[in-house]
From TrEMBL:
It comes from Flavobacterium hankyongi. This is Beta-phosphoglucomutase. Its cofactor is Mg(2+). Its EC number is 5.4.2.6. Pfam families: Hydrolase. It catalyses: beta-D-glucose 1-phosphate = beta-D-glucose 6-phosphate.
């Protein structure tokens, strides 16, 4: 039967984490909060609102709802100005080739991302046309490790959870896939993504024969 291949965005398709970092650091600086690349690691796969809460927590800063809204808007405006110049050179190694292979095999392709900016990013890097379904931060209420984003994606593709395969770089995302009963494939370090069923440093290390066995099984 047809499979659903669900891709996370940041850390799997493109490295937008560096732009998130620049934008969050600018905000943190203005609030006199020390925010390092190590801190940024903890924001991967985390929603925008939750990210702000974590950063404010680092500086023991309390704020009103109004202030938080203002900062979230500011951060996103800065982020949008950074991603403005993105093009296909920012696609991570072998991602396009992997999407092409899955497409040729007639399988379902979905995006399952926490980002509210997923569509414009896919469009900028020229990958939007590969996706049959896009589920992102605009569509879901529960953040990963809640499986809502992936469950919605497989449902829209008309594929059962058991026939869904998730590519994820975050621990929470791997947990979400596992909770949904989907096959979790970590993209990144095995020592971090311990709970993933399979793990690859990137798509260059994943043979097409591996994808073929996923389709057959
Ligand atoms: P936005 P993913 C996530 O993308 C990022 O990893 C995370 O750092 C970010 O806060 C989140 O999207 C929300 O992004 O501010 O653009 O709505 O890994 O789920 O594709
Ligand atoms: Mg990610």
């Amino acid at each position: 039967s047809k499979k659903a291949f669900i891709f996370d965005l940041d850390g799997v398709i493109v490295d937008t984490a560096k732009y998130h970092f620049m934008a969050w650091q600018k905000l943190a600086d203005s609030l006199d909060i020390l925010f390092t690349p190590e801190h940024n690691e903890e924001l991967k796969g985390v929603s925008r609102v939750r990210s702000l809460e974590i950063i404010l927590g680092l500086g023991n800063v309390t704020a009103t709802e109004e202030e938080k809204q203002k900062w979230l808007t500011q951060k996103n405006e800065d982020y949008l100005s950074y991603i403005e110049k993105m093009d296909d050179s920012e696609i991570l190694p072998d991602v396009r080739e992997t999407l092409e292979f899955i497409k040729e095999k007639g399988q379902g392709i979905a995006l399952g991302s926490a980002s509210k900016n997923a569509r414009p990013i896919l469009e900028k890097v020229g990958l939007l046309h590969f996706f049959d379904v896009i589920v992102d931060g605009n569509d879901v209420t529960n953040a990963k490790p809640d499986p809502e984003v992936f469950v919605r994606a497989s449902k829209l593709l008309g594929v059962s959870n058991e026939d869904a395969i998730v590519f994820e770089d975050s621990v929470a995302g791997i947990q979400a896939a596992n909770i949904a009963g989907m096959l979790s494939i970590g993209i990144g370090e095995k020592s971090v993504l311990k709970e993933a069923k399979y793990c690859f440093p990137n798509f260059l290390h994943m043979d097409t024969s591996f994808i073929e066995t996923l389709i057959k099984n």
